[in-house]
Amino acid sequence: MTAFLSVKDLFVRFSTEDGTVKAVDGLSFDLERGRTLGIVGESGSGKSVTSLSVLGLHDARSTEIRGEILLDGQELTGAPESVLEKLRGDKMAMIFQDSLTALSPYYTVGRQIAEPYRKHTGASKREARQRAVEMLEKVGIPNPSLRVDDYPHQFSGGMRQRAMIAMALVCDPELLIADEPTTALDVTVQAQILDLLKDLQQQTGSAIVLITHDLGVVANTVDELLVMYAGRAVERGSVREVLRAPQHPYTWGLLGSMPRLTSDVNEPLTPIPGTPPSLLAPPPGCPFHPRCAYTAEAGGEVCRTERPVLPPGRGAACHLSAERKRTVFNEQIKPRLG
Amino acid sequence: MLRFLARRTAGALVIILLISAITFFLFFALPSDPARMSCGKNCTADALAVIHKNLGLDQPVPVQYWHYMAGIFTGRDFSVGHCSAPCFGYSFSNQQPVWGTIVDRFPTTLSLTLGSAVVFLTVGVGFGMIAAAFQGRWPDKFFSSLSLIANSLQIYFVGIIALAVFVTGLHWMDNPAYYPITENPAKWFTGMLIPWLVLSIIFVANYTRMTRSQMVEQLSEDHVCTARAKGLGHRTVFFRYAWRGALAPIVTIFGIDLGSLFGGAIITEFTFSLHGLGRLAVDSVGQTDLPTLMAVMLISCAAIVVANIVVDAAYAFIDPRVRLA
Amino acid sequence: MTDKVSLPAPRDGSPGEPLLVAEGLTKHFPIMGGFPVKRRIGAVQAVDGVDLTVRAGESFGLVGESGCGKSTTGRLLTRLLEPTAGRISYRGEDITRAGRRQLAPIRSEIQMIFQDPYSSLNPRQTVGKIVSGPMEINGINPAGGREARVRELLDVVGLNPEHYNRFPHEFSGGQRQRIGVARALALEPKVIIADEPVSALDVSIQAQVVNLLGRLRREMGIAFLFIAHDLAVVRHFSQRVAVMYLGKIVEVGTREDIYGRPRHPYTHALLSAVPETHDADGTRRVGAPPGGSRGRIRLAGDVPSPVMPPSGCRFRTRCWKAQARCATEEPPLTRADGNTEGHLSACHFPEPPTVARNTEVILDPALRAAEDADGAGG
């Protein structure tokens, strides 16, 4: 029995003028209905590329996608465009980061929401408009029957993001991918939107993939967490496990880099030295080894030559022994996190 | 929207007024004396003075300008006779009211420019969209190279070749000529076809390139990706989302191109011996027929300014951000 | 690595002395329109009567959401924008209307770091040229020459001095921000106005830059006006903090005041909205930071337009405590009962001085409806 969404050994490569970008390099994860998976990583980690591959939105001519993406048992990699078109917006939908550029400036908000509904349900123009008003109300737009005829630029940033959520949810998708849905928003609005997403999920029972760079955002929004670095998953587990007892040095680094409202202000942050690698020529072995402070403890050479495996379920792709990971975290990392 | 149009119209009137003043003063500050022109070879000082008086040239230039502008709306009396409104004066060369000649020539130029605009917009934008749809593949390369070649062609060169091949060589059609559309639409069409195509060539190239780049840019926009993520088909995304975004800049450039379209029309009229405004303008330069030249300038300026208002209105219609701002 | 480099000793100016002072600082951007003649038809009230003091050697944080006027305030203080009203003084000298000549010596002491490390560096200049630019403009010739000084500065900000002749595009985002910092340091400033200096950077790089700025403050005695929307970063970096909302400071105090005993409802709402990794304890409703439970505060809608800000208290349209008085009477920024010296807030009905809450405030109608439905469903 496979999961509702099952990604196995996904490879995504782009050919560019400078060479081949290994954007996603052997990624696997499962997600069940009603659950939320958080994918966390910095720019260039491959998290957004993954989401676009699930929907099949990459330009087929410059992108090479290998591996399996099974949605409810149906293979999506290599599926014909006609099949994907029927699924997109209906069974699987997506919320993008920047609602200002992601909504067309030329059509009313109502029309853009109604469009996929008409396409997928065959509803009449009037029914679809009615549905758009309903959705706008559901996501908290005041005066929805008036605002439905507004253009995106007449909405504030938070309202636009709500409209985008309404658009994504209009056909009650079973899978919702939210790519940095709140990054462009103010903190108070972000809190509103995250709670709203979570509440709507309770009603619809859909599966959500939440992609973000912010560990704080996933903390009380997702169930499982996947940490990505340089196109690979480096750590996986329940959000509680990963944030309470992280096992990968990169996750330690991320947590140490983030100031929080309760940390000791007299202690400097503990950043990860160096910069993320180029995906044109990722380092051999563990992609994190050039920035890792624990390669010596893990055996040195093995980090540079051998690619660590991410075990299924809870775990991290790191050559440190499980025992060592626990002691290093408890003794060296945890005290600094406050 | 009405306010926007009102503001643009007011602005346009100011522009036309400015242009008229500048051209008028330039013309009458020129060293050539228009009276001497109409006086002819056996001119005496007395005769010259009479002509001066008849033409009102003995008055200061600002007064002359005032009479000229007032005449457009109320008509004027010259010694040769009454010139009823709209009066643009008497031609020096044929002693007829200029307005009559203009009315005579205007339809030719209008047919030529409008027809050619229709041709280059449909063909240029069409080619550009095909090139964008097949980005990087052979139709793209084909139309892109085609536009490069067309871009390096000149009207008089292509015009003469077209005449030699289609008229003289193949006898496919008669010499280009203007027939009023109201009398014989078929003849009007065949008579103008070659001039349309020839005048379009330089523009087609530009519009192909511009449409292609605009479409390529629009296709990489986030909102196009969103449209695809909603499950909309390729065709819907291409024509409804990307095309709509590419339209606005094309319309803007079209507004800017109107001036050069008239310039191209002058050459085209010359090449095909069409009796339009462009031809009239060139002829009156040769004959120092200032009133005619002045009238052609004013009317073509007014036409371009009016067309620009239409273009702006169209732009506002296309882009709600402009309309509602 | 970079921490081993020795820094010049702090220069004159005893810590705590007021350096940069703004009083009643106001900036209204006119909105032009109308027919037939364009005229002023309104104003964006970007900054409206802001008082603040940046003291020598301290970091003063300015937080708030987009459109609250924090960046405009920064630009006013460096005189990149002309204030509509109010007074700016630097070390006691009124510089509100100072001309170029009078400003020249001061300009070198007040420097700015910008958010976007991509657009704030000239792509056609080498790093050496960029960093030495301010010295050239001001005709400063340090002992040992400009190039030596630039190399020293690159070293200070943690860049390889050998990269003197490289161009900005050869550097990553974090490194570019370091170049910006080196440029700001070139004139040995006493105050740096840092406008969202880390918000465009990845988390791991962000920490590197925050640590670098912290080191400059501690070891070189440079004061900072630190403008940011990230409350945790501001808390980490600044000793005193002001919270802005729609062009006004609604609360100001020490770090402990603002983050530990806030009084203004907006400060409470902001703090409650910060997503924290501590919240990952299984229950999604109430987090449990040290010091008590944290009831959620979820406001409704977005920040109103600064063109027509609400009457009276500007926060009242999103506030759960608003009463009739809030619409008519603007609350002054004063010391509320029980506040420490210097902890000022502008609210008629201040909250109790603690971040712990037992009750939730859910103003967002959609959220309330959805949660009622969830509750009813199970």
Automatic annotation (TrEMBL), chain A:
One GO term under biological process is: peptide transport
Which InterPro entries does the UniProt record give? AAA+_ATPase (IPR003593), ABC_Ni/Peptide_Import (IPR050388), ABC_transporter-like_ATP-bd (IPR003439), ABC_transporter-like_CS (IPR017871), Oligopep_ABC_C (IPR013563), P-loop_NTPase (IPR027417)
Membrane topology reported for the UniProt record:
Peripheral membrane protein
Q: Where is the signal peptide?
A: none
Record-level Gene Ontology MF annotations: ATP binding; ATP hydrolysis activity
Domain ABC transporter intervals: 5-255
SUPFAM superfamilies of this UniProt entry?
A: P-loop containing nucleoside triphosphate hydrolases
Q: A GO CC term?
A: plasma membrane
Q: What is its main location?
A: membrane
Keywords linked to the UniProt accession? ATP-binding, Cell membrane, Membrane, Nucleotide-binding, Transport
Q: Which Pfam families match?
A: ABC_tran, oligo_HPY
What's the name of the protein? Answer: Peptide/nickel transport system ATP-binding protein
**Source organism of the structure:** Streptomyces olivoverticillatus
Q: What is the lineage of its organism?
A: Bacteria, Bacillati, Actinomycetota, Actinomycetes, Kitasatosporales
TrEMBL record, chain B:
Q: Name one GO cellular component term.
A: plasma membrane
Question: Which keywords annotate this record?
Answer: Cell membrane, Membrane, Transmembrane, Transmembrane helix, Transport
Sorted alphabetically, which Pfam families does this protein's record hold?
Answer: BPD_transp_1, BPD_transp_1_N
Q: Can you supply a Gene Ontology BP term from the record? A: transmembrane transport
Q: Where is the signal peptide?
A: none
Query: Which residue intervals define the domain ABC transmembrane type-1 in the entry?
Result: 106-311
Looking at the keywords, is Acetylation present?
Answer: no
- Superkingdom is Bacteria
Which PROSITE patterns does the entry link to? ABC_TM1
The subcellular location is: Cell membrane
Note the topology in the membrane.
Multi-pass membrane protein
For whether the record's keyword set contains Membrane, the answer is yes
Q: Which PANTHER family match?
A: DIPEPTIDE TRANSPORT SYSTEM PERMEASE PROTEIN DPPB-RELATED
Q: Which family does it belong to?
A: Belongs to the binding-protein-dependent transport system permease family.
- Protein name as annotated: Peptide/nickel transport system permease protein
TrEMBL record, chain C:
Q: Which residues form a coiled coil?
A: none
Does the record carry Ribosomal protein as a key word?
no
Any GO MF annotation of the entry: ATP binding
Q: Does the keyword Nucleotide-binding apply?
A: yes
Which keywords does UniProt give here? ATP-binding, Nucleotide-binding, Transport
- The record places domain ABC transporter at 20-271
List the GO biological process terms. peptide transport; transmembrane transport
Q: Which SMART domains match?
A: AAA
Origin, by domain of life?
Answer: Bacteria
* CDD domains per UniProt: ABC_NikE_OppD_transporters (cd03257)
InterPro entries, alphabetized: AAA+_ATPase (IPR003593), ABC_transp_ATP-bind (IPR050319), ABC_transporter-like_ATP-bd (IPR003439), ABC_transporter-like_CS (IPR017871), Oligopep_ABC_C (IPR013563), P-loop_NTPase (IPR027417)
TM region(s), chain numbering: none
Q: Which family does it belong to?
A: Belongs to the ABC transporter superfamily.
**NCBIfam families, alphabetically?**
oligo_HPY
Protein name per its UniProtKB record:
Oligopeptide/dipeptide ABC transporter ATP-binding protein
Q: Where does this protein come from, organism-wise? A: Streptomyces olivoverticillatus
Give the organism's phylogenetic lineage: Bacteria, Bacillati, Actinomycetota, Actinomycetes, Kitasatosporales
